[in-house]
Amino acid sequence: MRVIAGKARRLNLKTIPGNETRPTTDRIKETLFNIFQPEIPGCRFLDLFSGSGAIGIEALSRGAEYAVFVEKNPKACTCIRENLSFTKLTDGGKLLNMDVLQALRSLEGGEPFDCIFMDAPYEQHLEQPVLEYLADSTLADENTLIVVEEDLHTDFSYVEDLGYHLVRSKEYKTNKHVFLKK
For a Cys-Cys bond, which of 16, 43, 100, 175 suits 114, CB 3.0-4.6 Å? Predict the structure, then answer.
C-alpha cells in the first residue's frame, strides 16, 4: 500500500498485521480520489475508522489543510503515527484514539469538515449511528461531502429520512463508496 499522489507520492505505508483492519486497495483508493480530488485542496478532512490512516494521509498528501484521524484500535493508532511521521505529514494531522461517536462528541462545536470519510468494519452497521449523529451535528453542513465505504450489499435507503441526499454511488466487486450531502 502506498501514497498515490501529492507531496508523499510513492511512499509505502505500513498496515497492521492480521485481520483487524481491511486496507483500501491502491486501485480503489485511486478511483476514490479521482472522484474526491476537486474537494481536497485546502480542505478540513475527517477520517473515521482510520485503520492505517491511508485515506487521510492521501488527502494530506494531495493538499488537504488538516486531517483528523479517528481510530480506537491502539495497534492501528501506532501505525497511523508511524505513517504520518514517515510521510512527513504529522503537522497536518491529529489522531484521536477513541470510539468514533466519542470522538465526534469531542470535536463538536468546531468548524464543519469539508470532507468526512468513513470505512467502518463491514456488515456491522456502524455507519448508520455515525450518519444519524452527523445529521444534527455542527461537524457537517450542507457543503460537507460525506463518503462511506461499505459492503456492496449495505442498504442506504434510510439516508434521505436523515436529511441527506445521495450525490453518487460507486460500486466495485465487493464494496462500494456512497457520496452524501446534507
Answer: 43
